[in-house]
Amino acid sequence: MNIIFEEYRDKELAKKISKEIYHYAKEIDEDLLFMHVCGSHEWTMSHYGLRSLLPDSLEVRAGPGCPVCITPAVDIDSAVKLSLEGVTIIAYGDMSRSKGSKGLSVMDTRSMGGNIKLAYSIQDAISHAKRTPDKEFVFFAAGFDTTAPPTAYEILKGLPKNLSFIISYRYMPPLVGAILQSSVLGIDGVINAGHSSTITGMKPYYPYFLETRKPQVFCGFEPIDVLLGILALLKQIRERQPRLENEYTRSVTWEGNTIAQNNLDKVFDLDDGYVRGVAVIPGSGFAFKDKYKELDAYQRWGLRKKDSNEQFIHGARCGEVILGLCDPPECPLYMKECTTQNPKGPTMISLEGSCRIWAEHNLIQSINCKINNSKKYLDGTTTTTTGIS
Length: 389
Prior knowledge:
Blueprint: H1 2-7, H2 11-28, E1 32-36, H3 39-47, E2 58-62, H4 67-70, H5 73-84, E3 88-91, H6 93-97, E4 115-118, H7 122-131, E5 137-143, H8 148-157, E6 163-169, H9 172-181, E7 189-192, H10 194-200, H11 206-212, E8 216-218, H12 223-239, E9 244-246, H13 258-267, E10 268-275, E11 279-288, H14 297-300, H15 318-323, H16 346-349, H17 354-360, H18 375-378
Parallel strand pairs: 1-2, 1-7, 3-4, 3-5, 5-6, 7-8, 8-9
Antiparallel strand pairs: 10-11
């Protein structure tokens, strides 16, 4: 295993790929904007300094690939409300600290008498519920199509009756489709999330390719993976042969994990999904089928999904960071009011958030933001725009 990782972190090989990237970028001779949609990809790019290996004409931005960052404030508010009413909320570590529209996180309620349990998986939530059958538990189920299948599997097996769910899972292919379709972003190519694509496969992305004819590549998470993915996108553009290309062949297939997909289909329907501070994306949200509606905490506890304009702390640009419209240092609160020690927004709270990753790697704004001076990326809009169009 170590030998495999060493090959995917080989410095000399990285230099050779970088030279090829420069070669193709020079032949294309125009500014290009690529986007990845995975917090792990952003960590790799930042940790290994991959942007320093790219030509000035090529920019790679982080899109909505952090599950905590995109979880709607209304779901956090609902979890906070239930916690203060005596229901035990079970959440992942980062998710428990993300703040809702009123500036409160699930973890914050602990000092106010709320009941909180941290979990690494749905199995942890089941264990908590089984140990205390006389209490009610709600699992805050946030994430993408990577964390949704285990939940579906356990639901099909049968759950303790005192366990229900706030479902904030999101389906990645429609998010990528919205990115490719967006005239606001003006993306030239997408690096798709490796973990998610292991479940979904490449097939669900094909309709969006047919519509946009923009290059897509499915990448692993080592530095060589990412560089090869960037090179693949450039080759497609240079050769004018856009397609779905699979760099991550050791994990991703065309069909994906069909067992996981079948479990998801039995438990969930796909509905509109809200990406926090960005937009409602049709077909990106998981919702219980009628057979399992009794597991929905909103229904069980009579909760209403109230819209709120207070998605982020005042003055923060979290929505634009999530959408890839700006780099973290362009936010006026970055490393001032909002730090790793005192995070205010989800992009700094989450380990997969761009602000957190940049801060922990002491990155400065090394890439000129093209939003302010290029109609290509904004299509005539302003930098305050955070919606996908």
